[in-house]
Amino acid sequence: MGEMIMPSREIEEFAKILVKEVRDATIEECDSNFRPDVRDVIAQRWRKALGSGDADRIADVLIPDIVDATISYLLRALDQEMLPLTFKASNGKTVDLPVSAGTNGSQICQSRTGSTFRA
Predict the structure, then answer these.
(1) Euclidean distance between CA atoms 58 and 49, whole angstroms
(2) What share of the chain is helix, strand, coil (3-state, %, to 5)?
(3) How far apart are CA 97 and CA 108, in angstroms?
(4) What confidence tier does 78 reach under pLDDT thresholds 50, 70, 90?
(5) C-alpha to C-alpha distance for 21 and 19, rounded to whole angstroms
(6) Rounded CA separation 82/75 (Å)
(7) Cβ atoms 97, 78 nearer than 8 A
(8) Which residues contact 31 (CB under 8 A, 6 or more apart)?
(9) What φ, ψ does residue 95 adopt, rounded to 5°?
(10) Taking the CA atoms of the chain, what radius of gyration do you get in angstroms?
(11) Which of 17, 42, 43, 68 has a CA that sits 20 to 30 A from residue 111's CA?
(12) What is the pTM for the complete model shown?
């Protein structure tokens, strides 16, 4: 086995922000969908799927919602400049995502309760 390479402090900082602002936020939101007092449309959809007892149905409902929540929190972190990232487009142009979104007067992140992420 080779020598393990340690990530730089900058990579560690990025990873900590990513875990806190995306992973942990997603887990907290998804956990709340199991509370009986939560009445939003996603929580109701989850309870209906869980009530079916059908593992395939449960997976078909929960997995896309969990992925959508993860994407939403990632985009929120970009919007709020917690994760200042750049993107290189196919035309070779590099853009600073939070700055570019702000200069267009719009945010990257949109509401998940609509049809933004759902096909």
Answers:
(1) 5
(2) 55, 5, 40
(3) 8
(4) confident
(5) 6
(6) 10
(7) yes
(8) none
(9) -125, 145
(10) 18
(11) 17
(12) 0.75
Q: What does the pLDDT look like over 12-37, one tens digit per residue?
A: 999 999 999 999 999 999 999 999 99
Burial classification of residue 30, based on how many CB atoms lie within 10 Å of its CB (0-12 exposed, 13-18 middle, 19 or more buried): middle
Tokens read off for 95: 């853009």
Structure tokens at 113: 């309760």
Per the CB < 8 A criterion, the answer to whether 45 and 65 are in contact is yes
Return d(Cα 42, Cα 26) in angstroms, integer.
13
Query: Which tokens in the block code for residue 19?
Result: 């875990």
CB atoms within 10 A of CB 56: 9
Number of alpha carbons in the 13 Å side-chain half-sphere of residue 75: 17
Cβ neighbours of residue 42 under 8 Å, at least 6 residues apart? 33, 65, 113
